[in-house]
């Protein structure tokens, strides 16, 4: 992670990884967040894909840049996952709300992160395909019970749902992650090491208030 700060604005950079079973929609979530697009025919990720995007937390005048690693969900690529969540600051464990087994798989990823990921990593469990609520197999009560169970063990896991197809809830997830990251600690630590050096070079970003519109011709949720 790295940070920069100016007189009134702050900038922080964090590594984020997406984990989950194949076809739950990890890549679709990332592309909706980064490019505001959705593709029904998106092919499965091979190995991992890397993208970046920024958000702004207006209350604290902080811009957060996410370095996003979208990992493959196929079992044959599972052994590669530690390469991507190693040194990660945040992880999204994604499941498909219409597929109960994918929820169990997301929980398995969280178990692995708790054992092997860096201490203090921000973890979110994310249910995708909320546009298919009528086909839901994973009930809200089941998710909430899991979150409470984790909380009783000392793990405060973010719970969120979204639809990569419509865009609903996608930006909210990354906003929640950004607000949970230790931005203040990192900025102060880096200012101490760098002697308070100032740099405000930034490009792009996401307007968290922008309206979400479904792309023309979209029919089904994809992987």
UniProtKB/TrEMBL annotation:
UniProt-listed InterPro entries: P-loop_NTPase, Small_GTP-bd, Small_GTPase
Q: Where is this region: Disordered?
A: 191-223
The record ties this protein, via SMART domains, to: RAB, RAN, RAS, RHO
Know the name of this protein? Answer: GTP-binding protein YPT52
Q: Does the keyword Nucleotide-binding apply?
A: yes
Q: Does the keyword Nucleotide-binding apply?
A: yes
Q: Name one GO molecular function term.
A: GTP binding
Q: Do you know which CDD domains this protein is assigned to?
A: Rab5_related (cd01860)
> Per the UniProt entry, what species is this protein from, by scientific name?
Candida verbasci
């Amino acid at each position: 992670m790295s940070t920069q700060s100016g007189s009134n604005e702050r900038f922080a950079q964090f590594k984020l990884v997406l984990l989950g079973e194949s076809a739950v929609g990890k890549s679709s979530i990332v592309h909706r967040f980064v490019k505001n697009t959705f593709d029904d025919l998106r092919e499965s990720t091979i190995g991992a894909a890397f993208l970046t995007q920024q958000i702004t937390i207006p209350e604290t005048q902080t811009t957060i840049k996410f370095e996003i690693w979208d990992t493959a969900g196929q079992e044959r690529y599972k052994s590669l996952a530690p390469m991507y969540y190693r040194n990660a600051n945040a992880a999204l464990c994604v499941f498909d709300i219409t597929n109960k087994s994918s929820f169990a798989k997301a929980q398995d990823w969280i178990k692995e992160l708790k054992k092997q990921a860096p201490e203090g990593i921000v973890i979110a469990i994310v249910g995708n395909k909320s546009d298919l609520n009528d086909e839901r197999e994973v009930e809200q009560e089941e998710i909430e019970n899991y979150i409470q169970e984790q909380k009783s063990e000392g793990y405060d896991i973010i719970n969120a749902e979204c639809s990569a197809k419509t865009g609903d809830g996608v930006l909210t997830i990354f906003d929640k992650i950004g607000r949970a990251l230790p931005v203040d600690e990192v900025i102060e630590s880096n200012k101490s090491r760098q002697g308070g050096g100032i740099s405000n070079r930034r490009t792009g970003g996401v307007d968290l208030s922008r309206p979400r519109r479904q792309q023309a011709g979209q029919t089904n949720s994809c992987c």
